[in-house]
Amino acid sequence: MKGALFYEGFEAERNRYYIDLYFKACEKRGISLRVFLLERLSFGVRDHEPFLFYDGAPFELPDFAVMRLREPLLSRQLERMGVKAFNSSAVCELTNDKRRTYQFAQTLGLPMMDTWFLTQNGAVPALPYPVVIKSARGFGGHEVRLAQSEFELREAMKSFSSEGAVAQSLASDAGKDLRVYVVGNKIACAMLRTSTGDFRSNFGLGGSAAPYALNARETDMVNRVLEHMELGLAGIDFVFHRGEAVFNEIEDVVGARMLYRYTEIDIVDRYVGHIAGALS
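RE: above sequence
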């Protein structure tokens, strides 16, 4: 069995340890794995057929692709060429646009903070400042700001790489959130993240983390997502408002540093095991 691991170049440099975990997990199962960088890919339609080149040569199709990219168009191209993508292009497309994610969560009846969808040049409604302003396509706690006024909100949006954004009422229990790791559409574990110096509690931004036991209500919210979405490896995130978890977002290309620091869980090995089982 052959697998492909897709990264952007700068992310591959930053995640060498994590990439090595994929090679170790694949070798253990007799799977051949190669890393491919987005910057060296070209793809499109030629002679009415989808094509993909790497370094200017036709791409040798693997049996599966692990997408550590937020590029739904590439994922869809691979799927059109018969390659199973983990996570799928549908998951990538939905979860990497916060506006679509919140629309999805609303259809499931998940509790979440009041949310406004904004565009760079569109009208800004009267908001209950302070609000959290997020780039529609941001991730990992980046391109997230706390705005105390319309001026600060507009200034934040100017700095975002995406023209779309969302504004949300600030959860009462700021600096505290919950990440639930999912592998093969099953709950693998949950981690409570906290920060004393920032309303964002992301571990990659300096927050601390500890294993967390989900209560029945939190488990039910996760399962509602899993009933309507097929996730290979992802994080389902919640913030806390008045002492209770409310839905925040879904991380498609989810990080796992806190798991390897604070637990004995090898999430990459579990993920590769899930992929091997799904393909067999």
